[in-house]
Amino acid sequence: MTPTMQREYAQARKAGYSARESLRTARILQEWDNLESAGLLRLRAEEEQEGYFDVYGEPDNPKERAEIERYLDLWGCYCCLAEYLDTRGTWQVADSIGMCVYANPLDPLENWYIPDLMRSAIDRATAVHFQTAGSGI
Q1: What pTM value is reported for the model?
Q2: Mean of the per-residue pLDDT values of the chain
Q3: Residue 51 DSSP symbol
Q4: I want to staple 15 with a disulfide (CB 3.0 to 4.6 A). Which of 30, 35, 88, 109 is the partner?
Q5: Are 100 and 80 in contact (CB under 8 A)?
């Protein structure tokens, strides 16, 4: 395990990931960094177009609604997208998740959906750019 992977693993454990998920996340982050550096991947957050309460409905009590509204006012609500560059140079969405209410919605240590989005984009970019010729796929 590289020092970078060890650091990522330790940070994931500190964030509450299990040992297995921490190792998986560290591996994903290393792969992501390599492909992102090559200009093949990116993460984006767009302001959510749907209303939080329109999607999830009203909370059971006013106190709960006030707490949710406080976080929405403080952090906002985002749709997070993992994208890959296709062979024509066009960004394609590999995966996304909406209704993300986090201080740092693209941080994989805060938003635990991000490693899965990254994995989807890695897999798509790898299939597009590194698929071996004549594989029959």
Answers
A1: 0.90
A2: 94
A3: -
A4: 109
A5: yes
